Amino acid sequence: MIVCFDIGGSAVKGAVAHAPDRIVPLGRRITPLDDFDAFVEVLRAVIDEAGGAPERIVLSITGVVDPETQATKCANIPCIDGRLLSSELSQALGLPVLIANDADCFALAEAGIGAGRGHRIVLGAILGTGVGGGLVVDGRLINAAGGFAGEWGHGPAVASHAGHPPVAIPFYDCGCGQRGCVDSVGGARGMERLHLTLHELEATSEAITQAWLSGDAKAARTIDVLIDLVASPLALTVNITGATIVPVGGGLSNVEPLLELLDQAVRARILRRFDRRLVVRGECRVEPGLIGAAILGLSGDAA
């Protein structure tokens, strides 16, 4: 038995896991952002609620662990940013601690019990507020020791012109410190940014997608440009990794016609030809972070 956590900037969600398909959710608590001692006590309270003697705890977090220094980079939760979080938590809680990025945990969940079942190489893609991803090969997370593999959303990868007919697209500043990242155009905020650039109209991603589905020409232009910008970097990532399935999570994954267009555009730009869907909606719709953390904690990688 392990205790797994899905930790974001707003909430700490915990669960007891006996197997990937035997996960019992525990209480949801507010994430302490600026007080590390309070952060530890929230985890301790969840572990106490779980009862018994867990073998270890596993955290799915919004940040990344540096594979060389083991320092955590997590801008959303300042009290853990820069800490050797695994060793500090292990000392404080008296249990072994594993930590993985939330997109990596999504990829693990989809590879284990979701849309990636039966595939050797699974690229989990996040199209939410921004763009992220994780890579699983032969059931094992590439980033088991930490790192950025699978993060196709960052790096100056977007085209300077996109759409049909092409239109000039500026290289937007990205939160990672670079310019022209897929993250800056591909998620919900990116869609809104493109809509403003193309039409000088401010609208939420929800409003844009709904207008597109209702036949609005301006929204259709925005979606066309977004798909063109995102498909090429994703296709390149598929070529490099050899992924044979790309489950998608995040808010935009709920817009099935958007995923259909992205799938068609990606399959047209990759070397290998598929006569089936490659880019699909993730099947783990409820708590994929907890599922992925459970799979990591129960796997041989956790030994």
Task: Walk me through this protein's architecture.
By secondary structure, the protein is α/β, with parallel strands linked by helices. The strands form four sheets. A five-stranded mixed beta sheet has the order 3-2-1-4-7, with helices on both faces. It has a five-stranded mixed beta sheet with strand order 10-9-8-13-14. The relative contact order is 0.16. The model has no long low-confidence stretch (mean pLDDT 92). The protein has helices at 36-50, 85-93, 102-113, 183-186, 188-199, 205-213, 217-241, 256-267, 288-298, and strands spanning 2-7, 11-19, 22-30, 57-61, 64-65, 72-73, 97-101, 121-127, 131-137, 140-141, 161-162, 167-168, 246-249, 279-281. It folds into two domains: 2-104 and 286-302, ATPase, nucleotide binding domain (Nucleotidyltransferase, domain 5); 118-281, ATPase, nucleotide binding domain (Nucleotidyltransferase, domain 5), CATH 3.30.420.40. Strand 2 and strand 3 form a beta hairpin. It has nine helices and 14 strands.
